[in-house]
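PROTOCOL LOG
Step 1. Enter all chains and additional molecules of the complex.
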Amino acid sequence: MPDTLERLRAILAEVTDLNRATAVLAWDQETYMPPGGVQNRAEQFSTLSEVAHRRFTSEEVGRLLDEAEGANAKLDFDSDEASLIRVTRRDYDQARKLPSELVAEIAHASSTARPHWQKARHESNFGLFAPYLEKNVELNRRVADALGFEKRPYDALLNRTEPGLTTDELEAIFDELKTAIVPLVADISRRAEAVDDSVLRRGFDPDQQLSYALETVTKLGYDLERGRQDISTHPFSIAFGPGDVRITTRVNRDFFNECLFGSIHEAGHGMYFQGIGRNLDRTNLWDGASPGVHESQSRLWENLVGRSLPFWNHLFSSLQRTFPEPLKGVDAEAFYRAVNKSYPSYIRVEADEVTYNLHVLLRFELENDMLEGRLKVRDLPEAWNETFKSYFGLDVPNDREGVLQDIHWSFVGFAEFPGYTLGNIIGAQLMEKIRSEMTDLDHQIERGEFGNLLGWLQNNVYRHGRKFTPNELLERATGRPLTPKPWIAYVRRKYGALYGLHPASD
Ligand code: ZN
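Step 2. Run joint prediction.
Step 3. Record the structure below.
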């Protein structure tokens, strides 16, 4: 029944185009739009997304999916056609399950809550935000109820972002991480002086940082024929299709890490987008497999490559030529140590590789407690501070640097935090497999050769787009489902050596 699939593809192409037009508007808002444009832009977003949503959730799409499923029941699971039908069905059913009144209520609640969150954060006064968070918790719960779940409400929300993963499974992974990281963080804190990162604050010319970062991500494989880099307050990457995938970065004269590592991180997302198969273009399959898998690529390039010693053995001499003043008397290894300094801090987005997952774990636990009714919103700051103390050994000084720091709870989007940690562990799991197949990877990186690594990722991850769930993808790429073990082994080895915690095992 080729006509059915053709008709379905035509509708999905329209929906994709509408969503990509929305993405261009979003990019513009974050980069060049004058402040006065906010109101008009909000109207444009709402019009375009409503048209796209209506088109996608139409009866016609449901009918075409029914027909396509009947006619294509025998197709190979991994084929483009079977995947297109399977994934579009999942998206369609989820979109149809949310009543339009609830969708409208969520949009309204989010836009109402945001300025109150901003004010509360600015004044470090949780009470100003509490009533809006209460509303958002209730709406998250209603979303979970509308989508349906067997065991726990968080399952419904998680299934939207990381399909196939349950809350119980995630809890088990987080427990394993917690057992490994909490003592490691304490060990590192005791030996804090072993790593000196003062070189990063010696003043680096911002324009030179920007061009150096762009040059570096181009070397890694980010294609400027189909991309560009601009500046924004919060770095992000965004795709308008295979031919146009953009990244942004920020720059700080007095802290070197922000620009270069921010750029590498976003270029990791960008290379993922640039590598998705063109055969999947303008369908629901043309995107990353999940936020967690997407984040695995930003983290893999940023940390597993960009914060490795072989990488700095390759890059440092050119960095020193570009910034001779601040880097006088510094060598590659000292610089490698500096960019890897780990210390417990209050703010998630500034956290290093080791402590980062604890920030996510904290949020995951509290979201679940609120969603399942064990924690009242009014008691949230206290719960936050207590848990924070037990993980990091620090007293949270105020709500601004504590419970109010992230924008996420100002809109109705629980279950977004786990993706950050999943990214770390998926990245390490892929890297373990890559190393087993490419035993000279470190030498390649030392020579500035990134093509084989990129090629492996394109072949095993990028080209598949959204065809597979995270676990389906991991099983195909690494031969086993999601496991935190490679990441735990990686941080223990790396930070054990950096901080002299135990004799380095390799
Ligand atoms: Zn990211």
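Step 4. Note key features.
Residues 265, 269, 295, 298 surround zinc ion (CB under 6 Å).
The longest strand covers residues 245-249.
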